[in-house]
């Protein structure tokens, strides 16, 4: 069961006269957002690193939203300094006019939403990337709620997903709307090494962490946010069959200003059909894979996956 959670989406439009480069992704917008939010948030510019700042990181919009530290009381990700960020950027380049969708989830995102919206306004003045692509300053902001399925699901259409497991289809058309980067057996999963088990594990892992760190619940965060028997569930997907496979490799580069070097980015795009009875246990979670993204660089707009039931 998914704990109750609030999220909002913001649509950011690119100016119609702007011609975007081929392969344009959320990296440019996410980088511009980071610069603008840091400029508005930083009270100690003389300190070289945010990790050395004496200010409470959760009171700083930049650190809370884009460098989210792991709370000391958290029971998950104990070996990590940072946790999944409560905001993600997704390019909507197949729309009639190029646009981006920014999603914020949970109390931290809502608390710092005013600063986030001001940062978007700053981006509207400065432009995006090296060539200063212009964006529209008109924003469409929509708040949503996600509640346990048997109560009253809001935020995605309940009509899209049957309420009873017996009615849930076994076959799903999986569309990788943006390049997706998932680790499998120590390497990035590519079309030749595609694994349904690895895909579903990544989807559930992402949703579990977001639920644990960013969703409201009484009595504190549970040890198992989604309430699933992961081992049995993933074993069920190990025997899944795939068909209508149209998967392609994605290759790009990302420059890190902080590290001063370029990093290769590899992943998969395309679509396929996956058939497994194990879908019946997680059908109510599948729409969220498109909303929050899956895999590495989900904050940058990678890993936006749409699951469509095959009738």
CATH architecture name: 2-Layer Sandwich
Computed Rg: 19 Å
| Count of discrete alpha- or pi-helical segments spanning 4 or more residues | 7
Q: Give the overall silhouette.
A: globular
Q: Number of folding domains?
A: 1
Instruction: Give the biggest sheet.
Output: 4 strands, antiparallel
Structural class: alpha+beta
Share of helix, binned: 10-25%
Total strand segments: 10
First-to-last CA distance: 25 Å
Secondary-structure element order, N to C? EHHEEHHEEEEHHEEHE
Give me the side-by-side strand order of the main sheet.
Answer: 2-3-1-4
Fill in the keyword field for this structure.
311 residues, alpha+beta, Alpha-Beta Plaits, 4-stranded antiparallel beta sheet, 7 helices
Task: Provide the fold topology.
Elements: E1 5-14, H1 26-41, H2 61-66, E2 87-92, E3 99-105, H3 106-111, H4 113-126, E4 135-146, E5 171-180, E6 183-184, E7 187-188, H5 196-214, H6 230-238, E8 241-256, E9 261-275, H7 287-292, E10 305-309
Antiparallel strand pairs: 1-3, 1-4, 2-3, 5-9, 5-10, 6-7, 8-9
Helix pairs in contact: 1-4, 5-6
Description:
The chain is of the alpha+beta class. The protein has a single domain, classed as 2-Layer Sandwich (Alpha-Beta Plaits). It contains seven helices and ten strands. The strands form three sheets. Strands 2-3-1-4 form a four-stranded antiparallel beta sheet. The protein has a four-stranded antiparallel beta sheet with strand order 8-9-5-10. A two-stranded antiparallel sheet has the order 6-7. β2 and β3 form a beta hairpin. α5 runs antiparallel to α6. The radius of gyration is 19 Å and the shape is globular. The chain starts with a strand and ends with a strand. About 8% of the residues have low confidence.
């Amino acid at each position: 069961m998914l704990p109750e959670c609030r999220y909002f989406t913001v649509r950011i439009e690119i100016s119609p006269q702007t011609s975007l480069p081929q392969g344009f992704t959320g990296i440019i917008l996410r980088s511009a957002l980071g610069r603008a939010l840091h400029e508005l948030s930083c009270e100690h510019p003389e300190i070289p690193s945010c990790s050395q700042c004496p200010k409470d990181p959760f009171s700083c919009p930049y650190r809370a939203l884009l460098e989210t530290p792991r709370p000391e009381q958290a029971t998950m990700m104990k070996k990590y300094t940072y946790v999944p960020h409560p905001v993600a950027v997704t390019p909507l380049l197949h729309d009639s006019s190029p646009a981006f969708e920014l999603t914020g989830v949970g109390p931290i995102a809502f608390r710092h939403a005013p600063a986030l919206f001001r940062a978007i306004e700053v981006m509207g003045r400065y432009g995006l990337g090296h060539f200063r692509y212009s964006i529209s300053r008109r924003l469409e902001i929509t708040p949503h709620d996600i509640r346990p399925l048997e109560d009253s699901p809001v935020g995605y259409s309940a009509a899209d997903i049957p309420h009873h497991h017996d009615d849930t289809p076994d076959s799903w058309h999986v569309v990788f709307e943006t390049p997706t980067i998932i680790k499998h057996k120590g390497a990035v999963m590519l079309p030749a090494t595609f694994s349904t088990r690895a895909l579903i594990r990544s989807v559930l892992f992402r949703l579990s962490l977001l639920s644990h760190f960013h969703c409201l619940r009484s009595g504190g965060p549970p040890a198992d946010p989604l309430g699933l028997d992961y081992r049995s569930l993933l074993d069920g997907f190990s025997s899944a069959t795939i068909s209508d496979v149209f998967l392609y490799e994605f290759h790009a580069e990302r420059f890190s200003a902080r590290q001063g070097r370029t990093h290769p980015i590899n992943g998969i795009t395309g679509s396929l059909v996956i058939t497994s009875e194990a879908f019946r246990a997680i059908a109510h979670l599948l729409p969220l894979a498109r909303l929050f993204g899956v895999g590495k660089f989900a904050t940058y707009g990678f890993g936006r996956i749409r699951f469509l039931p095959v009738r």
